[in-house]
Design a protein that fits this description.
By secondary structure, the chain is mainly α. It has helices at about 5-25, 40-45, 55-60, 65-75, 80-100. Helix 1 (about 5-25) runs antiparallel to helix 3 (about 55-60) and helix 1 packs parallel to helix 5 (about 80-100).
Length: about 100
C-alpha cells in the first residue's frame, strides 16, 4: 500500500468518526454535567428524549461500503484497511449500541 492509500484511509477514518459523532448524539446530551446527570444512563432515565438511533444507523451504514468494495471486489487486503475497518466499526458499535446496554 502506498502513501496515497494511507492518506485516503486516514482522511476516511476521521470523516467517519466525525459523522458517527454527529448523528449518534442524543438531543439532550449536552445536559450531562457530572453533578446531577453524570452519564448517558442518568440522562435516559431522567429526561424523556427522542431516540434517533435508527436514523443515525441508516446514515452511517454507507461508511462501510468503501471497505467492502476494497476487500471483496478489488481483493486488496492490507493490515491498514483491516485496522481502519475494525476501529470504525468498534466506534460505531459503541456509539449506537454498547453505551446503552451498560445502563440496564
Amino acid at each position: 500500500m502506498r502513501w496515497k492509500g494511507f492518506t485516503l484511509g486516514f482522511i476516511w477514518f476521521w470523516l467517519s468518526i466525525f459523522l458517527i459523532l454527529l448523528v449518534s448524539t442524543q438531543d439532550k446530551e449536552w445536559l450531562i454535567d457530572g453533578v446531577d446527570i453524570t452519564n448517558i444512563c442518568d440522562l435516559m432515565i431522567s429526561i424523556a428524549s427522542d431516540d434517533i438511533r435508527d436514523i443515525g444507523l441508516a446514515v452511517t451504514v454507507p461508511l462501510f461500503f468503501p471497505f467492502f468494495y476494497l476487500m471483496a471486489w478489488k481483493r486488496q487486503h492490507h493490515w491498514f484497511q483491516y485496522l481502519l475497518f475494525i476501529a470504525i466499526f468498534a466506534f460505531w458499535l459503541w456509539r449506537f449500541f454498547l453505551r446503552y446496554t451498560v445502563c440496564e
